[in-house]
From TrEMBL:
Belongs to the HEBP family. It comes from the Eukaryota. This is SOUL heme-binding protein.
Length: 113
């Protein structure tokens, strides 16, 4: 499994309804990645970006991600962080779904500029 596996949520509360799941291609395959076998799967080259991130542990539910996202935005507002795009965000997982303990989860908001 590549890590992290991210899910780009196209609206603040859209989990499965409006999202893209992203898997990273390991460095050794990035020069010439394999062609996807399914038409819904595509390769996207992404530029370097900056994110505001909050890491948390546990077997996260949709509600857990929503709570962490809300707290992260609240902290960004309180600390006057400039350029936070709160119209969309990502969630990230680093372990297999079969690992039950010591899990690493993250919520990401893009920071412009």
């Amino acid at each position: 499994m590549t890590v992290p596996v991210t899910q780009h949520l196209k609206t603040p509360t859209a989990y499965a309804e409006s999202s893209d799941m992203c898997f990273y291609i390991p460095q050794k395959f990035q020069e010439n990645p394999p062609e996807p076998a399914e038409k819904e799967v595509y390769i996207e080259e992404r530029k370097t970006e900056q994110f505001l991130v909050n890491r948390f542990s546990g077997f996260a539910s949709r509600r857990d991600y929503e709570k962490v996202a809300a707290k992260l935005l609240e902290a960004a507002t309180r600390d006057a962080v400039k350029g936070v795009d709160n119209s969309t965000h990502w969630i990230a997982g680093y372990q297999s779904p079969w690992k039950l303990f010591s899990r690493r989860n993250e919520v990401w908001f893009r920071v412009e500029g």
